[in-house]
Amino acid sequence: MLAKAQIWAGLFWLAIGAYVAWAGRDLGLGTLHEPGSGFALFWIGLLMVALSLLVTVPAAVRPSPSLASLWDGVRWGRVLVVIGLLLVFGFGFERVGFIPGAIALLLVLMLFVDPVGWWKAVPVAILAPILVWLAMTKWLRIQLPAGLLAGWFD
């Protein structure tokens, strides 16, 4: 029974959620009208605990795959390529900028790492970063580096 993958995953996220809730409470909850710095963390932690229980409790009752079965058929080469691409994206983030870097990353991922048709990859790779950029910079007022496109999206 202890070898069940869902039980271990649920217990892991239960512990993380409990810690997040505890840390949020430790920072101070405040009130609903004047939330403290830990208000959001506390409720996010409780939500994580509840969701982890939704995984753990049914897994303890019914059969589920073993922990070792989660790693069957993993394509480690692709995993390492994705990690490498994310590192390159992270290190070049400020110089290249969010939009061109995210477009390039998505194109490489969708055309070469886990291929989909170019008619899907190109529109998604172009529209998704632009929509995320609009949401972050215009609505949430979070600055993202312009990089190569400095002056175009101001």
Give the SSE map.
Layout (H helix, E strand, L loop, with lengths): L4 H23 L11 H23 L14 H21 L1 H16 L4 H22 L15
Query: In total, how many beta strands?
Result: 0
**What is the share of helical residues?**
55-70%
| Mean pLDDT across all amino acids | 87
**Helix/strand-derived class?**
mainly alpha
Number of domains: 2
The shape is: flat
Taking pLDDT < 50 over at least 5 consecutive residues as the criterion, the unreliable ranges are none
Protein architecture, described:
The chain has 154 residues and is an all-alpha fold. The chain folds into two domains: 5-71; 76-149, no CATH class. Helix content is 68%, strand content 0%. The chain is flat, with a radius of gyration of 21 Å. Helix 1 runs antiparallel to helix 2 (39-61), helix 3 packs antiparallel against helix 4 and helix 4 packs antiparallel against helix 5 (118-139). It has helices spanning 5-27, 39-61, 76-96, 98-113, 118-139. The protein starts with a helix and ends in a 15-residue tail after the last helix.
